[in-house]
Structures are given as structure tokens and as C-alpha cells.
Amino acid sequence: MVEWPTPLSANPSLQQQRPVDVVPLIEFDISLPSFKKMEMKLNAEILNEQNSRFIETHKPEYHFLAQSLEKKGVQVNDVIKKLQELQVAIPSWALGAGGTRFGRFSYQGEPASLENKISDVGIIHALTNTAGAISLHIPWDIPKDYNAIKELAASLDIKFDAVNSNTFQDQPSMNKSYRFGSLCNTDSSVREIAIQHNLEVIDTGKKLGSNSLTVWLADGSNFPGQQNFQEALQNTKESLKHIYKSMPDDWKLFIEYKPYEPNFYSTVIQDWGTSLMLAEGCGQRAYTLVDLGHHLPNTNIEQIVATLMMKGKLGGFHFNDSKYGDDDLTVGSVKPYALFLIWNELVYGMENNPNNPSPAWMIDASHNIKDPLEDLLQSLEAIQIAYAQALLVDQKGLQEAQKQQDATLCQEILQDAYRTDVRPLLREARLCSSAAIEPIASYRSLNIRNQLIKERGLHTVASGL
Length: 465
Ligand code: AOS
Ligand code: ZN
Ligand code: ZN
Hints:
The protein is an alpha/beta fold.
């Protein structure tokens, strides 16, 4: 394996020894025309050059794996094609460092504007061919010039995925507060402000070519007795119905659930059942959104996925990982087997539930310490690994073993797929899409973070969180 360079940010003395201007393999100019040129260069020439370092190792590994899979009856070309087609949206808030209630450590060269954020997604997409969409948060990401933003995104082959409303922070223009909830509030004038905000978010999305709205509510209570559960749910339902009716006819509404945080005694939409009930109350184009981190420990998420897909109601999906309760860790970093089991149900549902639309995939993670772009590259890799493993599951054999009630064989079949090192398939898919065989190694050897620091400065602060 080729050695990876250390990230410069990890070693301050190294930063001094290697000033940014002595290592520019590529010039980053984020102003549109030259950035566009750079992207073309990054895709065609630079990535080819990068790939030439890895191709000799990759090819025999891929051929060996492809051959053994073909022998088992796997159509390897179909798997590669599906990997190439999978596109996962990057949320604008994941491009800067996240934080906790104890503080936030900005990362060097963070994107300070919407243009910067889109450019960052462009870098990830060029390296992986898997991040062809961005999910915006309003009001953090309201474009100043819609045409310029659309042009920039199009030049990087990036679409606008679901737009996200924010009724968990008061805005300066508000003369009321979300302190005791937004769509659930006992005060109808607060509910009205929150509804109007969602309608403005839809308008912003319309102008960008987005066609879905994600609603995540912080609404809930911190103390027993603080909130009338029934009234809060009823108010939320009426507010959501209003928003749903105001959406264009081809839009979808994704309703996210979360058992706790920032409220710690109760949340109004605490689980998938509540979300599904609200979605069904709104109408056909309202769906449940599953965020992996929004479950109490040991919840059987794969079963939730199966149930929702059977009902045709799994609309959105947020990837992340967690050990205890945080929902911000890198996908696959803690529970890769659980991720595989979830993907197994997703693949089953995509093949057997035509009533369920293709879910809108998004990474929803942003934490304190890693280079956010490297973290997203790792998350995309983990998503694709679990997806590829799930595509290898011998579905016919599994169904037969289930019929025979052969629990041992069922486990053998699942784990045979899970224990396959599918990374050569991912590398091949990227190679066929003119992306990077090894995205993180190339990101590092191209000194991309250094170029961003050069452009944006060491102490930029991402808008939003
Ligand atoms: C919050 O926990 C939810 O996961 C949201 O989907 C999202 O992270 C939030 O809207 C970002 O601010
Ligand atoms: Zn989420
Ligand atoms: Zn979350």
C-alpha cells in the first residue's frame, strides 16, 4: 500500500516546515470560472495521475475478487453499476467542524460562505463520484445570487437535495421565541411563525430546483408535566398539515424523529411510529425520515427500515454512527455490522417494495476533531462498503433458509457477504467514474486542505452551527 501523508493540521511544526506555497499541486481559486477550470483539471489530469500510483495494486485485487464473486453467481458488473449510481447528499453543516454544548473547535480553512460549501462538496464528489448533491439549511444557507449558486453547483455536477428548516434557533427578526417549541407551541402565533418559516424554506428550495423539505423539530419538554403530550402532538399535526398543503405538487415532506436532545424528558416526534402517524395524517407525499443516530441504544433499526419500506413510507435517510447517544460520529466507525444489516433491509426493500420511493440519502454527521472533508470521505466509503456487502447477500438462498427455518444457514449467508472485503469493488466503481481510486490518500497528497487554508485563511468560521 502507498503511504499516506500526515494531515498538516495534525502537526503544527510540520505546517511551518512546509508552507502552503511550496506544495501547490493545484491552484484553488474559489471564484467561479477558474474554480470550474480547476475542477476539470482535478477530475481528468490530476486524478489520473493520482490513480496511476494505485492501479497496479488495485487491478489484480479487483480481478481476484470479481472472479470469486462470479463463481458464486454474483453479477459483478451490476454491483459496480449500482455503486456508481448511489449518490449521497452532503449537508452544508457537515463541511465545517461540529461541536458540543461545551464548545466548538473550528477547523482550518472552513467554508465561510455557501459558495465555499458547494465547492467543498465539489471536491468530495470529484474524488468519489458519490456526493452529487448538497442539502441546505435555511436560514444558514440563503443564496444571495440564486443564478450564480445554481451555476456553480451545476458546474460541479451537484444537485440540491432536501432543504432543511430551522425552528430550533430563534432568528433576529422574530418577536416571539421557540423556547417552548415551534410547530407544537401552545401559542398559536409562535406556531404561525414556524409555519411561515417552513414556507419560506420551500420557496428557497423551489428557486434552487430542490423538491423536498426535511422537518426536524427540537420540540419537546425537559420536565414531567411541563407539556400536555396530546396537545403538543395535535398542534404539530395541524402545523405539518398546513406546511404539507403548501408544498408544490411534486414535492415530498420528510418528517424526522428523535427520542431526545435538545429536550431531555420528551420530544414531540420521539419515534418512527409517531413520524409515520404524522406522515399518514399529512398525505401521500409525506414520509418518515430515519436518522441512524436517533434511536435509543440497541434499537433494531433494520426492522424499522423494513416496516417503513413495506408501507412505502421510508422517504429520507440520514447516515451517521454513535456509541451511546451522539448522532455525529463517522458512519461505520462504531457499528459496521449494524450498518450492514440496515443496508440489507434497504436493498431488500428497494428490490421488493416498488411502492416505496428511492430514499433521499444524506450524511448527517459533523463533529469536533477530524478534517470535515476527510470525515465525509470516510463516511461515504463506509456507506458504500455496507451497500456493496448487502448487494452480495444471496437473497434466494436466504429466503430458502428462512423457509427451512435454518437459523444457522441464515447467519452463514449474511456473514459470508459481510465478511467479504468489498473495497476493490468500490475502487473499481470510482475508477470507472473517473474518480479517485483512493480518495483520502489523494486528498492528502494533493494538499487540498492546505489550498483551502490558503484561500480562506486559518480562522474562517463556517456559517450555521
Ligand atoms: C438533528 O439532530 C437532526 O439530525 C437534523 O437532521 C440535523 O442534524 C439538523 O437539522 C442540523 O441542524
Ligand atoms: Zn438528521
Ligand atoms: Zn441528528
